[in-house]
Amino acid sequence: MNKTLKITALGLVTILGVSGTGITAFAADGGSTTSKGDVTFEKNTDPSGPKDPDTDKPVEPTDPEITPPTSGPLSIDYVSTLHFGTQKISGNDEVYYATLDKLKDTETGAISDKPNFVQITDNRGSNAGWKLTVVQDAQFKNGTSELAGAKLKLINPTMKSSKKNGCKHTNGE
């Protein structure tokens, strides 16, 4: 099964430099002096690596078929591989649910089951927003057999953010 993830990012990556900001210090006897301060911001392109969606702690996927992360300040760090297990053939319309993702805690080594997820890191610093689109490129196949008419549907997606003021999202299929 091919999976394609497309991101449309609005806005430009900005490198900011702030210089010459005045800082004033006052003494108890009425004297004062001024100092200067400066800061330079650079793009953060460090890979984030997958994190537990509940605890935000680093984890290692146990699935050997993980999708490689993208790079840059707006990156897709992790995409669960969707496994539907073995299903009996039927002449009826059927619904198959993907199995849970198995993640290994990097500190304790404990393996836990988590809902399938996509992790995105936005280190652009512009709050420009982004949109994630999931596309099913072709019908599901197993060797030469094809599951005609199958549709991948994401039901009740939720969005979590490590940002303190949360995030806005829209549900979709």
UniProtKB/TrEMBL annotation:
<protein>
    <recommendedName>
        <fullName>WxL domain-containing protein</fullName>
    </recommendedName>
</protein>
<dbReference type="InterPro" id="IPR027994">
    <property type="entry name" value="WxL_dom"/>
</dbReference>
<dbReference type="Pfam" id="PF13731">
    <property type="entry name" value="WxL"/>
</dbReference>
<feature type="region of interest" description="Disordered">
    <location>
        <begin position="28"/>
        <end position="74"/>
    </location>
</feature>
<feature type="signal peptide">
    <location>
        <begin position="1"/>
        <end position="27"/>
    </location>
</feature>
<feature type="compositionally biased region" description="Basic and acidic residues">
    <location>
        <begin position="39"/>
        <end position="60"/>
    </location>
</feature>
<keyword id="KW-0732">Signal</keyword>
<feature type="domain" description="WxL">
    <location>
        <begin position="30"/>
        <end position="165"/>
    </location>
</feature>
